[in-house]
Amino acid sequence: MSFWKKYQTIIKSNKSYVCVGLDSELSKLPIHILETKDPIFEFNKAIIDATKDLVACYKPNFAFYLSQGLKSLESLQKTIAYIPDNIPVILDIKAGDIGNTMANYARAFFQNWNVDAITCNPLMGQDVIKALAPFEDNFAFVLALTSNPSASDYLKPNDLYKKISADISGLPTSQFGAVVGGTNTEELLELRRLMPESLFLIPGIGAQGGSLQEVVLNTLHTKTDARFLINSSRGIIFADSSINFAQVAREKTELLRTQINKIIAEMR
Amino acid sequence: MSFWKKYQTIIKSNKSYVCVGLDSELSKLPIHILETKDPIFEFNKAIIDATKDLVACYKPNFAFYLSQGLKSLESLQKTIAYIPDNIPVILDIKAGDIGNTMANYARAFFQNWNVDAITCNPLMGQDVIKALAPFEDNFAFVLALTSNPSASDYLKPNDLYKKISADISGLPTSQFGAVVGGTNTEELLELRRLMPESLFLIPGIGAQGGSLQEVVLNTLHTKTDARFLINSSRGIIFADSSINFAQVAREKTELLRTQINKIIAEMR
Fold it and tell me: Are A240 and A266 in contact (CB under 8 A)?
């Protein structure tokens, strides 16, 4: 099933816009998990088992699967395979290269690894996008305005993020969306205006300081299809480091899901 | 030994500014190599054996080591380990993420994989650079102005590449350099003016149409330390697909080395 169809289906079946970020850094895992044979996978498996009826998607970040060399990438592949097929998997890799190089990433991650979507970095221009366009069942979230403080170094001056956003808006909605940092309170409304139909992947809520209320109010598409996925990583998966971490992750996921849905329901 | 020391030493011992790009895509390897147990590694090994006295560095591109899943990444790790220790290895991955995420890339590639340098994408701003700064023995080539046609989409308007270049210029020369596309004939002089001391990694010569003469004349730092690494990938490694591919790769590397040195020698 295509990413887009999975997205449309899961937001209704799980009544959720929550993206759980699987930033499963080995050094941060609970001690009792470190004693298992494949700690990263065991950790992810427990998180997935505890949250799969509450999420809209999972987003593993590639960088956190390199700590033990290829063994950790194997844990990543096992994690992707373990995620139920109806839940979209977004590999956060911020890939940005051209032509055949980018096509190699796409073939590898979409076809061999069975990932539904990736994040990509548009700095090198339309060549990045062109290479992804043939993969019609997959999806790419293009960095439009990130959530980190230094997003203001290059993305904000001369309205670069607006130019990138306008370009994203011209791409097929079912194949391309935008990464929009939830910390950019002042720009959220403008970003939605520039990309009225685009699916937003929104990091930066919670630990990074973005306000959930403002994110939802300013970026909602419609009440039945918000067109956003609100990410929480550490705030969910590392909320507790005891033997109860998965149960606490479930509670945090449920809380975030409820908060988002409540803000939407109360909108006029 | 640090990347910077390796660079300073190899350009003298091998009298070379040639970077051989190991874009060793499985589908493009000579047929007789495909019959070996680990074709990607066997191919690279033959190229390295044939060129190691002629090069300034090797640059494998991460994307081309994903075709067969983790097996190809193992071939990449074997390749990195096989490259003689005095020759710098640049992993072309165009990584661009923040804080702890970027530090994870750095730890993995610099410390576990034993890579000397990476390429990185600065779109997310100084946070990308800050995370790399503590790795003083390593090096990062920051995308300043790439060689592909759509570099003009975001990097050229409003002189974004000039702003990025000025920022690179302010970083320690022994830790940060710039990716400067050889196709940008009109901007080369300006790029060197903006980054007078920085080491340039220059793709785009040959297949992509950049003129070697103009690249050398416009970006040379000094006659004894050019401060550039001129990359050729396909033009060297896939110049011949017969059983003689390694010998032909040697000839192409030697030709490029000679051409560069000749242009430098003839400069006033």
Answer: no
* Residue B133 domain-assigned (yes or no): yes
> pLDDT value at position A69?
87
Please, which residues bridge with residue B200 across strands? B178, B228
pLDDT tens-place string over residues B203-219: 999 777 779 999 999 99
- Tell whether the model's pLDDT for residue B268 goes beyond 90: no
CATH of the domain at A259: 3.20.20.70
**pTM of the predicted protein model:** 0.98
Q: Using alpha carbons, select from B222, B43, B149, B99 the residue that is nearest to residue A125.
A: B149
Cβ of A67 within 8 Å of Cβ of B125? The answer is no
pLDDT at B173: 98
Angle in degrees, CA A254, A259, A261, rounded to 5? 95
- Known catalytic membership, residue B71: no
Portion 53-112 of B in contact with A at CB < 8 A:
61, 63-64, 66-70, 73-74, 77, 94-102, 104-105, 107-109, 112
pLDDT at residue number A208: 73
Domain that holds residue B80: 3-206+224-266
Q: How close is the nearest chain B Cα to the Cα of A256, in Å?
A: 23
Number of domains chain B contains: 1
CB A30 within 8 A of CB A241: yes
In this structure, the strands spanning A57-60 and B139-145 are: unpaired
Name every chain B residue with its beta carbon within 8 A of the beta carbon of A148. 98-99, 124-125, 127
A32 min Cα distance to partner chain B (Å)? 23
Task: Identify any residues that bridge with B205 across adjacent strands, giving them in sequence order.
Answer: B210
| Complex ipTM value | 0.97
A125·B95 Cβ contact <8 A: no
Contact A94 B96 (CB under 8 A): yes
Q: Of B121, B144, B146, whose CA–CA distance to B131 is shortest?
A: B121
